[in-house]
Amino acid sequence: MAEIDALGAAFGQQTATSQVQLAENFEMFLTLLTEQMKNQDPLNPLDSTEFVNQLVSFSGVEQQITANQNLESILLVQSAAAQGAAVGFIGREATVATPQAVLEGGEAEWFYVVPEDVAELSMIVKDEGGRIIGRFDGEPGAGSHIFNWNGEDANGNGVEDGIYELEITASRADGSAATVDVLSTSRVTAVDLSGSEVVIEMGAIRALLSSVRALREAPTA
Question: What is the pTM of this model?
Fold first, then answer.
């Protein structure tokens, strides 16, 4: 989501400034016009076409400012709608575009989407500090795949529960890199509306609302 609140604030400030400047310029223009009309040479009157053109220009600027005001109102309505909808995410399971997933009880799960068949695909699991925990082979075929991690490092030792990150590198037959989307699914526990874009919280994982790819009812216990 382009940052709606930030855009709305920017448009509001710009519109208010433009209105003040337009009013000042138009008032000065009318003052000068009046003085010129009063002091013009009767035998060589001023060209009225130029005055008409300037009036038309002022009218066009005024219409543009009005359009900006309308756009600002639309952005504010969209922002309010997005915030209201996000609150309804709480308690549901969201699939988001994030490399992070929670390891709990020796289980963590990621989804990854390969856009096309690739020659090689490798996966690296890292902890929150960026330390490599283990390397794994992935599915190189095009489509959506699931990676279930048992919480063991490269030596087969179990690691502590917490947040871990999945990094995937893929290459085509010609050696060029291919982009693979990584996603994870967790229950939404809170929604943060304080920033310029809505953030959903899934336990300790935070993700932008725009990163949500799917939403479903959480399974009952």
Answer: 0.62
